[in-house]
């Protein structure tokens, strides 16, 4: 290992190099992460456990359903499917959005098969009909259903919360309010909120991989050195990264402009800057990429990012400190929503089980572009659904971002085979760099009534 003495040794030291005042919220979030270091591999592979996840997670936790723009007008509907369950989101008025179980009370056909604008919710099978407010409007041949009281035949609702133009639902009517569920996250995303942003790119892909294993690839930067070796010089200074958690939310910080300790030479700042700008050894450094004297690569890259993002965010980017301009702050709201902070990463991820198959899951990436006050909103981009053999890198709108996700994907398509071949039957997580994953499993254990420590001890005692 090579400790680069010319570089900061912690995120605190990185922040000390900032050219602007660093807002308090960057330093203040949660506590150091806690959670199991070992979990049984069956948590990824066991089909009966997946059924428990449906009951304890997908029917009980707050989860992202859509953006408010997906139901922009009265009568707009949007379908949210997860883990074999289906929900329909409906706008009733400017201020009211409701969510229902997407299941006809007659014989269970989904009331809506796809998004669209309607004046009422009519089942396509026999025509039972409900108002947008969920009240029964029509029972065909009512004399045939003497046991049904139309007054008590309303659609079962789910809880709905709108936060920064995201629509969340919770099927559990007794669950805690969304605001307390996300806790401190609200104050973390106040300066660069996701409200008044258009869904400009939306890409989805189904992976042959359990949903938890899939999202774990996006909950740590520990894999950067081997999975994205092109970033080793500029984005892999692991000692400078930071991990914390509070309640149902965790935060990882990837400090930009730092070199991995596993790179044997200490590069100069010009070299780091060149790498940050995506140039390689054999390319000539153009004049505009020459680092100004007395400036670090990180500082110059921050200014470059402000200049790029000004077109989207407006002049407010000039208030962004270097950390806000370049670092990646990546949050996870249990169980599956991953918004990024700052101006450096204006996108969110969502990871969902695919149908009721524990071996398949969906990754979604939504780019959310700020819309200036005087500008018209655009309808949300239609999802680009990548096929089994298509890669994120093929989506030209994603630029170099797509190639990173494709690199991440390469590990994931075979991971179930590896997990099922595990002879120790145990997966391990590191203290710091995989802290977000440990935090996830601390919430998961509680939600599922499981204990990783007990199960791992039982595995060890069985194997002698
Ligand atoms: S199943 Fe819906 S009307 Fe019959
Ligand atoms: Fe990655």
Query: What's the CATH topology name of the largest domain?
Result: Naphthalene 1,2-dioxygenase Alpha Subunit, Chain A, domain 1
Largest sheet: 7 strands, antiparallel
Q: What is the 3D form? A: globular
Mean pLDDT across every amino acid position: 93
Q: Distance between the terminal alpha carbons, to the nearest Å?
A: 36 Å
Low-pLDDT regions: none
Order of neighbouring strands in the sheet with most strands: 3-12-11-6-5-4-7
**SS-based class:** alpha+beta
User: What is the strand content?
Assistant: 15-25%
Bound molecules: FE2/S2 (inorganic) cluster, fe (ii) ion
Radius of gyration: 24 Å
- Tally of helical segments: 15
Highest-level CATH class of the largest domain? Alpha Beta
Number of domains: 2
Number of strands: 21
Helix content: 25-40%
Using the 3D structure, state the CATH architecture of the largest domain: Alpha-Beta Complex
Overview of this structure, please?
The protein contains 15 helices and 21 strands. With 464 residues, the chain is an alpha+beta fold. The chain has 2 domains: 11-44 and 193-458, Naphthalene 1,2-dioxygenase Alpha Subunit, Chain A, domain 1 (Alpha-Beta Complex), CATH 3.90.380; 63-174, Rieske [2Fe-2S] iron-sulphur domain (Rieske Iron-sulfur Protein). The strands form 5 sheets. A 7-stranded antiparallel beta sheet has the order 3-12-11-6-5-4-7, with no helix packed on it. Strands 17-18-19-13-20 form a 5-stranded mixed beta sheet. A hairpin with a 7-residue loop joins strand 17 (337-339) and strand 18. Helix 9 (269-276) packs parallel to helix 10 (297-313). The longest helix has 17 residues, at 297-313. The radius of gyration is 24 Å and the shape is globular. The protein binds FE2/S2 (inorganic) cluster and fe (ii) ion. FE2/S2 (inorganic) cluster binds next to loops.
């Amino acid at each position: 290992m090579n400790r680069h003495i010319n570089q900061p040794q912690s995120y605190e030291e990185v922040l000390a190099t900032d050219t602007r005042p660093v807002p308090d919220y960057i330093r203040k979030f949660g506590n150091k992460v806690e959670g199991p270091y070992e979990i049984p591999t069956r948590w990824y592979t066991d089909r009966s456990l997946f059924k428990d996840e449906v009951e304890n997670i997908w029917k009980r936790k707050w989860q992202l359903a859509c953006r408010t723009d997906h139901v922009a007008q009265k009568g707009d509907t949007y379908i949210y499917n997860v883990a074999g369950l289906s929900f329909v989101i409906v706008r009733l008025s400017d201020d009211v959005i409701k969510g229902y179980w997407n299941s006809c009370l007659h014989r269970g056909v989904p009331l809506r098969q796809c998004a669209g604008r309607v004046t009422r919710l009519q089942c396509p099978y026999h025509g039972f009909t409900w108002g947008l407010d969920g009240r029964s409007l029509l029972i065909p041949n009512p004399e045939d259903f003497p046991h049904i009281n139309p007054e008590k035949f309303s659609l079962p609702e789910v809880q709905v919360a709108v936060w920064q133009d995201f629509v969340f639902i919770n099927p559990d009517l007794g669950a805690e309010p969304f605001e307390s569920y996300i806790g401190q996250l609200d104050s973390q995303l106040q300066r660069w909120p996701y409200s008044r942003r258009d869904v400009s790119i939306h890409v989805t892909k189904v992976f042959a991989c359990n949903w938890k294993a899939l999202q774990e690839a996006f909950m740590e930067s520990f894999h950067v050195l081997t999975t994205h070796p092109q970033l080793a010089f500029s984005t892999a200074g692991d000692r400078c990264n930071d991990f914390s958690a509070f309640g149902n939310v965790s935060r990882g910080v990837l400090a930009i402009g730092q070199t991995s300790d596993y790179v044997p030479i200490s590069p100069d700042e010009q070299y780091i800057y060149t790498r940050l700008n995506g140039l390689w050894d054999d390319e000539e450094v153009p004049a505009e990429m020459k680092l100004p004297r007395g400036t670090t690569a990180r500082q110059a890259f921050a200014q470059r990012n402000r200049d790029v993002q000004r077109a989207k965010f407006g002049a407010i980017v000039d208030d962004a400190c270097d950390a806000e301009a370049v670092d990646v702050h990546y949050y996870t709201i249990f169980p599956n929503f991953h918004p990024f902070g700052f101006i450096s990463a204006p996108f969110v991820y969502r990871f969902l089980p695919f149908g009721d198959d524990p071996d398949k899951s969906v990754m979604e990436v939504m780019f959310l572009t700020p819309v200036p006050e005087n500008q018209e909103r655009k309808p949300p981009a239609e999802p680009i659904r990548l096929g089994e053999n298509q890669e994120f890198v093929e989506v030209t709108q994603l630029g170099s971002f797509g190639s990173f996700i494709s690199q991440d994907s390469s590990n994931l398509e075979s991971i179930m085979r590896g997990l099922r071949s595990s002879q120790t039957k145990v997966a391990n997580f590191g203290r710091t760099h995989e802290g977000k994953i440990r935090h996830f499993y601390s919430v998961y254990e509680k939600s599922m009534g499981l204990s990783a420590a007990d199960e791992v001890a039982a595995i060890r005692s069985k194997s002698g």
